[in-house]
Amino acid sequence: MLTEIYxxxxxxxxxxxxxxxxxxxIGLEVKQTGNIYARIPYSLSDPKLxxxxxxxxxxxxxxxxxxxxxDSGEKVPAPPVTSLTAADKKNIVEKIAERxxxxxxxxxxxxxxxxxxxxxxxxxxxxxxxxxxxNYLLYYLPEELLDYVVVHELAHRRHMDHSQRFWEEVxxxxxxxxxxxxxxxxxxxx
Length: 190
Known about the structure:
Largest sheet: 4 strands, mixed
Number of strands: 9
Order of helices and strands: EEEEHHEHEEEHHHE
Strand order of the largest sheet: 1-2-4-3
Strand content: 15-25%
Shape: elongated
Pfam families: YgjP-like (PF01863)
Distance between the termini: 35 Å
Helix content: 40-55%
Organism: Blautia ammoniilytica
Structural class: alpha/beta
């Protein structure tokens, strides 16, 4: 049984990793990291798998190209967390906490604990208990992007999903949120 398949165009050769499970459908996934997965049912034969991947080669190369473009996106111009001084950490916490307080006031929401972390993949998160986490790298981004992430997480205090109502809430306090989301994707956290 195949565990990987290679596909090639004029420029590069890509490896597609095969993940078999109890699922009923075939799924293709191209991660931001550039890893490519074919998620398939146990029962799918190798020839059918190869045929499916070949049929979707163009899509895979296109998606892979998009991840390369975001990878060449800017790394946040910030010192590694290990080299931050106590004063740096204090400034980061104060600035982010100040934006959270400001938006809590105008959005009329409350939060539990505010935590600033070195998160590998996220800019922020909000738990069902109302605790919010933020990536320390936000401190080093343009202010409108920090504000967008704060508004995004606080909007989860009203809607714990990404429904239409959630985005309407975000838009009330960050009318340019679409543009901010796009800009945020130009940076990566690692």
